[in-house]
Amino acid sequence: WVIYNKDKAIYPVISERLPMKDKKFLDSAIENNQLLDGLDDGFFLGFEMVLFIKQLPVFKGISGNLVSDLADKIIPVTLNPKDKLVLNEGEDNQPILIVAHGAAKIKSGTNEVGTLKQGDVFGDLFQEGSSQKITEAEALERTVLFKINLVDFYFVLANHHDLVQGLIKNVTRKLVKQNA
Fold it and tell me: Running DSSP on this structure, what letter comes out for residue 116?
């Protein structure tokens, strides 16, 4: 994407060296990704995810290379209005959800737990006390959720002490402001 946008003439020369499958994927990625549309174009470049996550208050001041390791674990989920993401994970493996675009109601069984809007992060570590077990997220509008499996999330934390310190500092600051 970067090569194509810096020098459109050199892109075909470089992409010729790739296997046809990879070349088709890159051509599709370039055609479908409109960086100015951000995360609303339905195609997610890694650096778009990193830039989005870095601007969230809970990730403030955390270096991009640490956030990129976390972004590698993201499963993007695009939902149209009224679509539901059913979460069948066990009670001890509730995913982390980040709303990249739109808004969604989160439910525990038939009970509505709350509404998440763009930039909200839900899951273990991001709520005061233990986070409530959720069974589904229902889109209120066209919504993009970034889902991170809890095991993957903790694996990244286990390998990055600075990420843990930054998250604890930011989450604690957020919770103090909410309770003030």
Answer: E
